[in-house]
Amino acid sequence: MSYVKKPLEELDVMDDFLMNQLASDEAVGEAFCRRLLSTLLHREIGKLKVSAQKVLPALSPDLRGIRMDVEVEELSDKPDGQEPAVMNLYDVQHQK
After folding, report:
1. How many CA within 13 A on the CB side of residue 32?
2. Among 8, 14, 58, 96, which residue has the fewest nearby CB atoms (within 10 Å)?
């Protein structure tokens, strides 16, 4: 497969660069990931924490770690300023 440089107007969410930039953007990334996950999972998605290019190391030498293009943590709602618990962890990356 050869690399082809495209103008921004021709990019879509199947492009690695645009998908990563959109999901990790401070202004729109959380809303984009919420909409994307809500559409794919057919349910409402609450509070999210989005991190780009996250690497999770293996828990033991026998296992391999993983690299996530965009890590999205779905958080629980905790009252009174308590730290929210992570309910679900998603790796947001497209597949052709």
Report:
1. 17
2. 96
Residue type at 11? L
Q: How far apart (Å, rounded) are the C-alpha atoms in residues 18 and 48?
A: 20
Query: Do residues 26 and 48 make contact, with C-beta atoms less than 8 angstroms apart?
Result: no
Residue closest to 33 by CA, chosen among 88, 73, 86, 66 = 73
- For residue 39, the 8-state DSSP code is H
Report the distance separating Cα 33 and Cα 89, nearest Å.
12
* pLDDT for residue 42 is more than 90: yes
Statement: the pTM of the whole predicted model exceeds 0.85: no
Question: What is the rounded distance in angstroms from the CA atom of residue 7 to the CA atom of residue 62?
Answer: 43
Q: Which two tokens stand for residue 6?
A: 């495209």
Distance CA 57, CA 19 (A): 24
